[in-house]
Each structure stands twice: as C-alpha cells, then as structure tokens.
Amino acid sequence: MVKTTISEVYKYEDQEVKIGAWIANKRSSGKIAFLQLRDGTGFIQGVIVKTDVPEEVFQEAKSVTQESSVYVTGKVQKDERSPIGYELLVTNIEVISRAVDYPITPKEHGTEFLMDNRHLWLRSRRQHAVMKIRNEIIRATYEFYNEQGFVKVDPPILTGSAPEGTSELFATKYFDEDAYLSQSGQLYMEAAAMALGKVFSFGPTFRAEKSKTRRHLIEFWMIEPEMAFYEHEDSLKVQEEYVSFIVQSVLKNCSLELKTLGRDTSKLENIKAPFPRISYDDAIKFLNEKGFDDIKWGDDFGAPHETAIAESYDKPVFITHYPKAIKPFYMQPHPERDDVVLCADLIAPEGYGEIIGGSERIHDYDLMKKRLEEHNLEMDAYKWYLELRQYGSVPHSGFGLGLERTVAWISGVEHVRETIPFPRLLNRLYP
Ligand code: 4AD
Ligand code: MG
User: The Aminoacyl-transfer RNA synthetases class-II family profile domain covers which part of the protein (predicted)?
Assistant: First the structure.
C-alpha cells in the first residue's frame, strides 16, 4: 500500500492509501464518524462507517482525541463538496500519540489566548493558509529576482550602524563594543551592489518601536533589493513589477488558501503594473481638500492619512518626493528642489498601509559626508559606507518591502501578528 500525503491523494483515486496525520476535529454518531484530518500538506475528511470496519476500529475513531497523531488507512474517493475534491473512506486507524485535552477547541477564543497558544494555533486551517501564502510570496520573490539577474546577498544581523534613525535600536554588547540588531540591511546592500550590480536580501530586521498597531512588529522580515546605475524612476519600475508578480503568483498557486481565508480575490486580480503615483505635495493638498486639517506640508502621514489616499485607487499607490527633513540621511536630493528627496513609499490598498519604502541614494562623497555630520552619526562606524563614494561611486537605488504587511494585505488578514509564525510584539516574547 502507498504511503502518501493529503496534497497528493488526487493521484490515487479509488485506491487504498496510508497517511500520517493529526485529528483536527471530529464528529460522530452511533453509526458513522467524521474525522477532519490534517497532515501539514492539507486537510481532508475521513469517513468511517460502523458496519464497514471491525468494531475496534470504529471505537478507536470515536474515542480518538483532538490533535492526536495517527496513521489512517483508507480509500480515496472523489467528493464534490470537499475543497480538495476528495475524501477518505477510512478502513483502519492507528493512534501514534493520544493528545491530552487540547486547549484550542472549535469554539471562539480571544486573541490573547490564541497568542499564548501560538505554538498550537499555527495548526489551525486559517493559520495554515496564511503561512502557505507567506511561503508563496517568499518563493515568488526568489523566482522574480533570480529571473531578473539579481544576486541574493545576506547582510549581517549584528551591526554597528543605524540606517533608519537611532531612536528605535536594539542595542547589545559585542564583546567590548556596542552593537545593534539590524534595522535594515540597506547600507551593506549598497556595498554589495557595487560588487555585484543588482542584489537582493531577505532577512529579519528589528525595531524597538513603541507602536502597538495592526501594522507594527518588533521583529519583521524585509526584502531589500539594491541596484547600481538605477535612478529613482528605474527603481519604481522594479517595485511595481515585483509587487504585481507576487500578487499574481499567490492568485495562481494559493487559490485554496485564499478561499479558506474568504479573501475577495477580485480586488487582487487587477494588481498589475503600472501603479499610480502621487507626489507628497499633491497628497497633502488632497488630504486638506478632503477635510484632514490635522496635517500640513512637512508632516509625516499617519495611518488614517495613508488609508484615505489609498482609497482613491484600486491598486497600490506610490507617494513620491517626501520632505528631506522626515526621511533618512542617505536619500538623494531632488535635482531642482532642495526641500524634497528622490524617494517613494508604496501604499497598499484596503487600508494595509506602507508596504515599501525606497529611494535613490546619495552617491556624491561630499554631500554624503555633510549629511552624516548633520545627522550626528558617528563617523567611525560609517567610514566604510562613506568610502563607497570614493571608489567609483555611481547613481544607485533600492527599496525594502515589509513581508508581513504584504502577507496581511494579500491574505486579507487584519493584523500582522497572524502573518509571521511567532510574532514579537511590544508586550510579547512568548512563545
Ligand atoms: O520604510 P522602511 O523603514 O525602509 C527601510 O528600512 C529602508 N532602509 C529600506 C531600503 O531602502 N532598503 O522599512 C521598509 C518597510 C516598510 O515599508 C514596511 O513595509 C516595513 O518595512 N516595516 C515594518 N513592518 C512591520 N513592522 C514594523 N515595525 C515595520 N517597520 C517597517
Ligand atoms: Mg518607511
């Protein structure tokens, strides 16, 4: 008999197979038992009819507890009502490990309770679907950048520099020196772009942000491409092509998961490059006209502002050319204006907020030196970064896409805490 997985049962219609699984849920009457089986690759219903199996097998099916691990044997049958198109007519069940009272029952639980049980909650159908979509976005990311000739480069996690400002750093000791957990791999990716041309990274980043919102994590994962000889506009093109590609890949390869989550896919189908653009100046005017009198030129946008802007479009929208004063030190100034920089944030539709931050980088040595001084950054730590401007400096651009916010948007999940296996939040380091 073949041992297979739930994802592969379609290959064995009307044949008997053996599957290692867990009991996600169970329902039984005197004559029939329904086992919701999950094995990591998917979910399938197992049906056991009392009169068709030895009595002890039926009793085992009736008494097996939720989340016990089992080997089940059964015949694969076509079933129109099943999301995967098949069910299993169970002929035997062997319990591997009987689970004690499982805390997560089919009834409703509060968020804190579910978060305390994150190590178990991950097994649920909904969390399974979100993790599969996360995985598809990561897979599509590697495909996209490899196809476009980018080289994957891994920047360090322990660093001596702070690209995104010094207020949100996780400091630690590095033997006798001070070190920080990486906020962004960008500065190292700039060095890598000068060696390899087009590069991308994918790794964890850390921000000691005291923000408790549905968009903020303390530890999150970022994809950071950096491209030599790419100017601002060239970078926007990569961004819109990349985001379109991951959305279309999820639509193509995760239809079951999107269905499980009840995602309205009509809102995703239309996500294709090019994306609309609005300048920061026009965005402020737009908001003031809309009645937001709490924001003026020079302020950064809050979540309600971003949502209001995004609502005018059915695709992600680039907000370009922010004031220099509210952006990091490394951004290239606008060639005709001293007050704004060549940057853009990409705002996702449906209120999911900023998913990408990016810019052209300053490549002039003197200007970079001046900016580092203006920002009171310790020259010793940035010596190597400044040197990149002394040895064949070129225009270059890059950006960072926040994975969890992107997963939240594409999955239609309200809060980023469900988009990473073990979220690190303001008040949560457990489990
Ligand atoms: O806009 P940010 O801060 O940009 C950078 O770090 C650049 N150095 C990237 C680059 O140019 N290479 O962060 C980039 C993205 C944001 O748009 C957002 O999607 C995500 O990272 N992000 C967060 N996601 C979850 N929780 C947080 N606390 C986040 N902070 C930023
Ligand atoms: Mg940003």
Answer: 131-431
